[in-house]
C-alpha cells in the first residue's frame, strides 16, 4: 500500500495505483479533522477540479466527507483554474480550498492540492501534519461520508461559479484597454485544461483579436502532458511563427497556474526571462513600488533588475508555498520561480498563469516592442545573464558520496572563487563574478537537478559540464 506524501504542490499520484477513491476519502478526512481542530472550519471550504478523469467525482467525494464532519463546501460548477479557487477562498473568507489537479503532469496522474485561508498552498508543517493523519488511517475505514442529497438539504454544500468575480479582479491588475488599443492579435492555448474560457475569453471580451486553440476539455490533453514548455508547444510555436499578424502566443497548463510565452517570431521565452522583464516593466513603466521574492533556483537576472532599481530580493526554497506568504504580507511587488510561477501584489499568494500571460500582453502592447527586443534592451541596462539546467543521474556509488561532496564545497569553480553558499534548498555555490551553480537532489528519483547561471552562454555551458564532473568523477 502506498503512503500519502505531499510534494511541493500537494499530493499527487497515478490513477488506480496510489490515487484512488479510498485514498482521496482518507486524505479528505485528514483535512476535515485538521480544519475542525484549527477552529476555522465554520467558514467553509472551496472545492474544485480541473479537466482530468473523474475530477468532479473526486470533488464530490471530498464534499461528502467534509459534510459528514459538519464543514460546508463551496463546490465549483465546472473545471476551474487553481488561481481562481485561490481568489474565491479570499473573496469568501473561506477557511481553505481543495483542488483536484495534477497541474502539468501527464493524464494518468491526478492530485489534491490543499490551500489555506490565505489563498496560498499549505506550508510544509501543515502538509506533514496531514500526511501523518492520512497515513495513520490507510487500510481502515476511518472516514465518514454524507449522501450528497442530504448535504445539499442540510446547507453543507453550495454550487458556485467563481469565474465572474475572478475576471472582475483581473480588470484591476491588467490594462485591457492598452492591449486592445495596440491592435495586436494574440494566440491562446489552454492545452485542453481548466484555463479555457478564461484567458481567451477575457481578452476577446476586451476587444482583443484572439486565435484560440485546444480550448475544449480533454482528459488526455491531446496525448501529451499539459505543460506549457517549448518541447510541448511545437505546433503552437509554428502557428505563431507562420502568422505575420500574431504578436504573441500565450499558453497555460492543466490548471492554468503556469504559463508559456511565445514571441512574435516563434521564440519560446523562458520564465527566467519573463520574470525580470515584468519586474522592470512594473517598476519603470507603471511606477509601482515594492521588492521581489524568488526561489533559490530562479535566475539572478531578477536580482540584477532589482539592484538596478534599488529594490530588495528575498530568496526562498523551491515551491510557491514559500513565496506566497511574502505576497500575503504585501512585502513584495512580484513573486516568481523559474518553473513558470508568478503573481503580483494585490492578487492571490499563489502562482497564476492567466495573470502572467495578461501582464506580458500588456507589456508588449504598451512598449510596442517584441519580447526579444525588450530582453536585449534590459540586458544592456542591467547586465546580461544566461541560465542552463540539467539532470544528473547518479549511480549507487556516486549517490552514496553525494552529501559529503556538497558538505565540503570547492574553493574554486572554473577558475573563479566560491564566495558563498546557500543551503536553504539543496546547495548553491556563489562565484565571485556573479555566476552560480545549484545542486538539488530529487526526492523521487536517483538524480540531481543542476541549475547554472553565468554572464555568457559559453560560461553557463561550462558550469553544467563542471557540475557533472564534480558529482561523477
TrEMBL record:
The keyword Phosphoprotein applies. InterPro entries: A-D-PHexomutase_a/b/a-I, A-D-PHexomutase_a/b/a-I/II/III, A-D-PHexomutase_a/b/a-II, A-D-PHexomutase_a/b/a-III, A-D-PHexomutase_C, A-D-PHexomutase_C_sf, Alpha-D-phosphohexomutase_SF. Gene3D superfamilies: Alpha-D-Glucose-1,6-Bisphosphate, subunit A, domain 3 (3.40.120.10), Alpha-D-phosphohexomutase, C-terminal domain (3.30.310.50). Keywords: Isomerase, Magnesium, Metal-binding, Phosphoprotein. Its cofactor is Mg(2+). Residues 410-464 form the Alpha-D-phosphohexomutase C-terminal domain. The keyword Isomerase applies. Residues 4-135, 166-266, 271-375 form the Alpha-D-phosphohexomutase alpha/beta/alpha domain. Transmembrane segments: none annotated. PANTHER family: PHOSPHOGLUCOMUTASE 2B-RELATED (PTHR45745:SF1), PHOSPHOMANNOMUTASE 45A (PTHR45745). Belongs to the phosphohexose mutase family. This is Phosphoglucomutase.
Amino acid at each position: 500500500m502506498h503512503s500519502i506524501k505531499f510534494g511541493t504542490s500537494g499530493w499527487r499520484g497515478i490513477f488506480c495505483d496510489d490515487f484512488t477513491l479510498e485514498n482521496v476519502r482518507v486524505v479528505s478526512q485528514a483535512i476535515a479533522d485538521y480544519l475542525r481542530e484549527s477552529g476555522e472550519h465554520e467558514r467553509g471550504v472551496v472545492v474544485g477540479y480541473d479537466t482530468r478523469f473523474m475530477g468532479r467525482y473526486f470533488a464530490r467525494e471530498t464534499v461528502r466527507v467534509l459534510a459528514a464532519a459538519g464543514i460546508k463546501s463551496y463546490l465549483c460548477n465546472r473545471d476551474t483554474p487553481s488561481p481562481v479557487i485561490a481568489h474565491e477562498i479570499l473573496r469568501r473568507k473561506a477557511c481553505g480550498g481543495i483542488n483536484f489537479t495534477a497541474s502539468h503532469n501527464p493524464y494518468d496522474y491526478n492530485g489534491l492540492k490543499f490551500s489555506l485561508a490565505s489563498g496560498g498552498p499549505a506550508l510544509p508543517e501543515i502538509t506533514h501534519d496531514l500526511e501523518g493523519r492520512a497515513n495513520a488511517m490507510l487500510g481502515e475505514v476511518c472516514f465518514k461520508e454524507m449522501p450528497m442529497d442530504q448535504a445539499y438539504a442540510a446547507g453543507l454544500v453550495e454550487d458556485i461559479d467563481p469565474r465572474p468575480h475572478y475576471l472582475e479582479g483581473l480588470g484591476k491588475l491588467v490594462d485591457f484597454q492598452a492591449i486592445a488599443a495596440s491592435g495586436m492579435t494574440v494566440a491562446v492555448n489552454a492545452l485542453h485544461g481548466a484555463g479555457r474560457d478564461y484567458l481567451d475569453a477575457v481578452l476577446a471580451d476586451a476587444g482583443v483579436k484572439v486565435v484560440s486553440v485546444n480550448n475544449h476539455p480533454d482528459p488526455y490533453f491531446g496525448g501529451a502532458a499539459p505543460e506549457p514548455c517549448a518541447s510541448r508547444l511545437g505546433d503552437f510555436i509554428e502557428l505563431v511563427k507562420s502568422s505575420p499578424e500574431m504578436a504573441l502566443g500565450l499558453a497555460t497548463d492543466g490548471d492554468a497556474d503556469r504559463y508559456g510565452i511565445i514571441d512574435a517570431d516563434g521564440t519560446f521565452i523562458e520564465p527566467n526571462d519573463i520574470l525580470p522583464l515584468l519586474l522592470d516593466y512594473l517598476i519603470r513603466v507603471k511606477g509601482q513600488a515594492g521588492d521581489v521574492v524568488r526561489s533559490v533556483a530562479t535566475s539572478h537576472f531578477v536580482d540584477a533588475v532589482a539592484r538596478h532599481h534599488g529594490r530588495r530580493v528575498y530568496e526562498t526554497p523551491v515551491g510557491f508555498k514559500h513565496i506566497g506568504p511574502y505576497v500575503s504580507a504585501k512585502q513584495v511587488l512580484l513573486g516568481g520561480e523559474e518553473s513558470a510561477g508568478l503573481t503580483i501584489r494585490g492578487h492571490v499568494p499563489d502562482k497564476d498563469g492567466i495573470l502572467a500571460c495578461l501582464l506580458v500582453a500588456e507589456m508588449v502592447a504598451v512598449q510596442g516592442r517584441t519580447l526579444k527586443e525588450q530582453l536585449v534592451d534590459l540586458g544592456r541596462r542591467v547586465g546580461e545573464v544566461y541560465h542552463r539546467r540539467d539532470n544528473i543521474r547518479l549511480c549507487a556509488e556516486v549517490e552514496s558520496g553525494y552529501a559529503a561532496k556538497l558538505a565540503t564545497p570547492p574553493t574554486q569553480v572554473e577558475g573563479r572563487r566560491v564566495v558563498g553558499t546557500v543551503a536553504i534548498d539543496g546547495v548553491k555555490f556563489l562565484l565571485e563574478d556573479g555566476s552560480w551553480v545549484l545542486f538539488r537532489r530529487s526526492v523521487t528519483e536517483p538524480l540531481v537537478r543542476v541549475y547554472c547561471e553565468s554572464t555568457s552562454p559559453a560560461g553557463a555551458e561550462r558550469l553544467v559540464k563542471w557540475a557533472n564532473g564534480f558529482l561523477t568523477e
